């Protein structure tokens, strides 16, 4: 499982021209899931995500968490995080989780995050248009293989 976390001042996602998710200050999280991922894997990444201290304190140091700043979450599924570009110029995404399993895992991640923070989401499998203002820029990658 992979989370690409971007600290944002605001972010939104549209499907067919309609806004389906929108947040102010917080994290835009792109989520990649592979077949071997479990709820335990998700729980580890969620715990790390929600505990990250990457917002500036009064001294300009990154000491504050999402909870400290009253932040929000926008969670977007993105199977292309498992793209393999080693051969040729057309990425292969065969390592990405099968749609039914990945969608269930995505829903689980949303439900767990929503227990603690205002959480918005995209639509699994849809053609989404994501807009954001990356604050920093500040981008962190969490990979379950590295935790």
Describe this structure in words.
- The protein has helices at residues 39-51, 99-114; strands at 2-15, 18-23, 26-32, 53-56, 62-65, 72-77, 119-121, 128-143.
- With 147 residues, the protein is α/β, with parallel strands linked by helices.
- It has one domain (2-146): D-tyrosyl-trna(Tyr) Deacylase, Chain: A, CATH 3.50.80.10.
- Strands 1, 2, 3, 6, 7 and 8 form a six-stranded mixed β-sheet that branches. Strands 4-5 form a two-stranded antiparallel ribbon.
- Helix 1 (39-51) packs across helix 2.
Which key terms come to mind for this protein?
alpha/beta, D-tyrosyl-trna(Tyr) Deacylase, Chain: A, 8 strands, 6-stranded mixed sheet, two-stranded antiparallel ribbon, 147 residues
Largest sheet: 6 strands, mixed
Query: What is the count of β-strands?
Result: 8
Mean pLDDT: 96
**CATH-assigned fold name:** D-tyrosyl-trna(Tyr) Deacylase, Chain: A
Shape: globular
**H/E series, N to C?**
EEEHEEEHEE
Rg value: 15 Å
| Low-pLDDT stretches | none
Under CATH at level 1, the class stands as: Alpha Beta
Number of H- or I-type helical stretches: 2
How far apart are the first and last residues' alpha carbons, in Å? Answer: 10 Å
Class inferred from helices and paired strands: alpha/beta
CATH superfamily: D-tyrosyl-tRNA(Tyr) deacylase
Helical fraction: 10-25%
């Amino acid at each position: 499982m992979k989370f690409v976390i971007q600290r944002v001042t605001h972010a939104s996602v549209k499907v067919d021209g309609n806004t389906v998710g929108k947040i102010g200050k917080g994290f835009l999280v792109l989520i990649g899931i592979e077949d071997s991922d479990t709820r335990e894997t998700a729980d580890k990444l969620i715990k790390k995500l929600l505990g990250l201290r990457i917002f500036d304190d009064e001294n300009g140091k990154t000491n504050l968490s999402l909870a400290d700043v009253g932040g929000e979450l926008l969670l977007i599924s993105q199977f292309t995080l498992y793209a393999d570009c080693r051969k040729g110029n057309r990425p292969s995404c065969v390592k990405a989780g099968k749609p039914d399993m990945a969608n269930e895992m995505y829903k689980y991640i949303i439900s767990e995050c929503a227990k603690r923070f205002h959480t918005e989401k995209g639509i699994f499998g849809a053609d989404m248009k994501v807009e954001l203002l990356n604050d920093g820029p500040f981008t962190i990658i969490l990979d379950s293989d590295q935790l």
